[in-house]
Write a structure and sequence with these properties.
Rossmann fold; 39% helix; binds adenosine-5'-triphosphate; three-stranded antiparallel β-sheet; 9 strands
């Protein structure tokens, strides 16, 4: 790991990050900064490297090379401090369906050693914020997909993280629920001054809520800036059009592009 000077106004700093899975270069030397209290959208086609990057930022995966700071801490050497700094909502639901909404929240608070009184107050604040307080004693298995997603977000915020990672938070939700969820996320971003790092395949959502976006393709960041600046730079009429101009219209098959690149390189080395 390279050392990096911490920027107080940066929630996340990434420099020269590389991740290889065997011969596959999943992340190919990326650098970006997420400012504190901003909503940052990390956009890219399937297999571009979004989840791999999130895993490295959240201590779940070790980078092959490069430097990362999350809330001023290095995820490879200061795992506990990094883990206290963020909350995360994964693509796959991870609630306990046999517990009530309230019990799911308590369970998370206990994991973070929160004293009972603090825990109770926090649960009330968050369930009210996500409009779930009236349903707190219902079993999660009776919840709709939208309610479950809201509860997962509330749970991810239990320990007062400064940064919230949302990996495709609106996946599988209807337009009404998506709209409501973004309202909640924006409110949260303003009320609790939380930095939001999100991924989505719905460009219209990113255009509406994100302060800044980075577009990743084949493991490389090909453009970053405000949604408006990307639209202008590509002479497009929307972020979706800008995204397609930048990443092309071909459907992505996962993996072979990068495999081929590394194979060609090693082939050249041998001849
Ligand atoms: P999606 O939008 O489909 O979630 P993504 O942008 O999150 O895609 P990643 O899951 O980060 O993409 O994958 C990036 C690349 O790394 C892909 O080519 C993928 O096949 C490869 N990859 C991911 N995990 C592994 C692994 N454990 N072993 C080998 N290759 C992997």
């Amino acid at each position: 790991m390279n050392t990096m000077n911490s920027d107080d106004e940066a929630a996340i700093e990434v420099r020269g990050l590389i991740k290889q899975y065997g011969n596959i270069v999943a992340i190919d030397n990326i650098s970006f900064t997420v400012r504190r209290r901003e909503i940052f959208a990390f956009l890219g086609p399937n297999g571009a490297g979004k989840t791999t990057t999130i895993k490295m930022l959240t201590t779940l995966l070790k980078p092959t090379h490069g430097a990362i700071l999350v809330n001023g801490y290095d995820p490879t050497r200061e795992k506990d401090a990094v883990r206290r700094s963020f909350g995360i909502v994964f693509q796959d639901p991870s609630l306990d369906n046999e517990l009530t909404a309230y019990e799911n929240m308590v369970f998370h608070g206990v994991l973070y050693n929160m004293p009972r009184k603090v825990r109770q107050e926090r649960i009330k604040t968050l369930l009210q914020l996500m409009q779930l307080w009236e349903r707190k004693n219902e079993l999660v298995k009776k919840f709709s997909s939208g309610m479950k997603r809201r509860l997962e977000i509330a749970r991810g915020l239990m320990h007062h993280p400064q940064i919230l990672f949302l990996d495709e938070p609106t996946l599988g939700l209807d337009p009404q629920t998506r709209h409501l969820l973004w309202e909640h996320i924006r409110e949260l971003n303003q009320k609790e001054e939380i930095t939001i790092f999100l991924t989505t395949h719905i460009m219209e959502e990113a255009e509406r809520v994100a302060d800044n976006v980075a577009v990743i393709d084949n493991g490389r960041i090909i453009e970053q800036g405000t949604p408006k600046s990307l639209v202008e730079r590509t002479s497009s009429s929307s972020l979706e059009e800008a995204f397609l101009t930048l990443t092309g219209k071909a459907i992505r098959e996962e993996g072979p592009g990068n495999t081929l690149k590394i194979t060609r390189k090693s082939f050249k080395r041998r001849v």
